Amino acid sequence: QVQLEESGGGLVQAGGSLRLSCVASGRTHVISSMAWFRQVPGKEREFVSYRGISTYYADAVKGRSTITRDNAKNMVVLQLNNLKPDDSAVYYCAARGGMDDYRFREPASYVYWGQGTQVIVSS
């Protein structure tokens, strides 16, 4: 199986930046794409960014975020700039294989998930 571990969350001020990292371990060779989602209590899991054949960003973070992947380190990083209170959430790393860039906004299309890292943006 594949294990994902997120890190980099914490308390930040509005307008600041943070760097979220996700490291994959186990059978990492099966991974073809990775993504970031976020979720707040009582709401559906929300797509944030995707790195596969192509790169995609949710409208909420376009222009102020960058997703990068280091295949040698089995790691994907999400850089978020100009943070807003609405960015506060638990951020989850996700991975899948064999789907190219199909259905990348849908949580159900991902097989592997991390435990999440909490981001709190103060105003």
Describe this structure as you would to a colleague.
This protein is mostly beta strands and 123 residues long. It is 0% helix and 51% strand. The strands form two sheets. Strands 2, 4, 5, 6, 9, 10 and 11 form a seven-stranded mixed sheet that branches. A hairpin with a 3-residue loop joins strand 5 and strand 6 (55-57). The chain is globular and about 40 Å long. The N and C termini lie far apart (40 Å). The model has no long low-confidence stretch (mean pLDDT 96).
Q: How much of the residues is beta strand, in percent?
A: over 45%
**Element pattern in H and E:** EEEEEEEEEEE
**Helicity level, as a percent range?**
under 10%
Gyration radius over CA: 13 Å
Instruction: Give the CA-based shape.
Output: globular
Main beta-sheet annotation = 7 strands, mixed
Distance between the termini: 40 Å
Global structural class: mainly beta
Question: Low-confidence spans: pLDDT under 50, at least 5 residues?
Answer: none
Number of helices: 0
Q: Quick one: how many beta strands?
A: 11
Mean pLDDT figure: 96
